[in-house]
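Chapter review: from sequence to fold.
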Amino acid sequence: MKKILKTILATSALALAASTVSAGEIAVIVKTTNSNFWQNVNKGATAAIDEQSEHTMSFNGPASESAVADQVSLVENAINRGVSAIVLAPSDPEALAPAVKRAFEAGIPVAIIDSGLAEGNEQYYQTFLSTDNCAAGEQAAKLMIDNAGSSGKVAVMSYVAGVGSEIGRVGCFTKYLEENSDIEIVGPLYSQSQMATALNQTTDTLAANGDLIGIFGANEPTAIGMGRAIEQAGKAGQLTAIGFDGNTDLQDMVKSGTLLATAVQGSFQMGELGVKAVIDLLAGETVTDFIDTGVVMVTKENIDSPEAQNVLY
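The token string follows.
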């Protein structure tokens, strides 16, 4: 992940605005509240708020990650009620940009988490906290080659096309396979982050490609649906399956051998460090442009280790 560059003008304008903001509400707005991953972000954000008494926090998100217009409305509502700061996981890199620009113009500092905004909007937010999704995708691809081999078919089960995290994660996964193997890529297929959709898509993909050597599920609901389809087809352990994120369903699939591994992001850290970053901004302090919240490749061998347990949820 390249370090985000901000203009001196934008930085100065925000610093001036932040210095005049009093205590108040920090709005944490995520892609959906109907996911253990985002609820773990909530836990981290709550932990950061509980460490101080000056600011309060609200946590919100639409019913699904594909409800982009609803998320835009949540950001607009937060600006309209005069929140002190916003921590935002944008569901769409283009659609959320105007709202973030409006927050900047209103003097409201914004920390972006998980997925970035479209290029050209860096001056409107002050820091970006995320897994290095490209590096994570490459790590998953390398593990795929190491375990499945360098030729054959690998299916890619993705979530929402065009989201910043998806572009890095899935894009770098497929690029690494293309540049370092003779693997034929099936897909990507997009579940819209719906577990049932991913299950059906994976069921169809397995039926149509009996010679698959591997399959990659690129986020939590997609990986769960993928894993359940593999189990229902009686193919657990017969192909290399790698998931993403780390709720109890995915942990159980790693333990049972349905998944070789799952790449787990520091979701708690996104919430905790995101809230701490905007609190620092409100206090007139500076924060770095990019904060890497990390990823751990969790396998049956290391799932009980402190490193894995610190990111699983």
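Two observations follow directly from the output. Residues 1-21 have pLDDT under 50 and may be disordered. The chain has eleven helices and twelve strands.
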